Amino acid sequence: MEKATLPLKKFDEFALSEAQTTQKALSSSQVAKSLDDAAAALEAEARRLRHRATELRSAEQQAKVWEKARARIRAASIIATREGIPFARAAFDIAAEIGAPIEAVIQIMEQEARKTARERLHLRNEEIMRLKRRGKTNAEIAARMDLHEKSVARIGGRMRRYMVYRGPDLP
Predict the structure, then answer these.
(1) Which of 6, 11, 70, 76 has the least C-beta neighbours within 10 A?
(2) pLDDT tens-digit profile of 112-152?
């Protein structure tokens, strides 16, 4: 029997395929490590997002509670203004009722008082302009609105300068 020997070329191909297999194994382990790192990073991001979602839900609920409190404070501010209840007394009563800090209640009440005053002035000025468009004199408007004649003239001039002049109203 003759001794069989592997041709040299086959040996080189065998060595080359083993090197490729080793390289593939190394790159597979690197890929696995990269995938593990990516999975860990994604898990950390998922935990952060879940925590943030909880915070946002809590903030949303808190915003709803504050909006209800603001509405209650606004209503109490208007009632206090109309009925002549002292501002501080109304603020303390509301703060105790809704459990809000007195500073926040006072700030909201002050904003509401300014807003209410602006709205009343706007309505009064609109009424003056409406009467002027109907041909009433400053003296007649002043007597009707319990103002001085010069005040009516000043308001009419300012309204004409800064606001859109509307057409005549129908009776």
Answers:
(1) 6
(2) 878 878 888 989 999 999 999 899 999 999 999 999 999 99
Q: How many residues does the chain have?
A: 171
What single DSSP character describes residue 163?
A: S
Distance of CA 126 to the CA centre of its chain: 32
Q: What is the pLDDT of residue 171?
A: 44
In angstroms, the CA 105 to CA 113 distance is 12
Count the alpha carbons within 13 Å of 166 in the hemisphere toward its beta carbon. Answer: 11
Between the alpha carbon of residue 161 and those of residues 60, 125, 128, 141, 165, the distances in Å are: 44, 13, 15, 19, 9
Three-state secondary-structure class, residue 86 = coil
Q: Report yes or no on whether pTM surpasses 0.90.
A: no
Going by the DSSP 8-state scheme, the letter that residue 164 receives in this structure is P
> What percent of the chain is predicted at pLDDT more than 90?
15
Instruction: Supply 19's token pair.
Output: 């090197």
Q: How far apart are CA 55 and CA 58, in angstroms?
A: 5
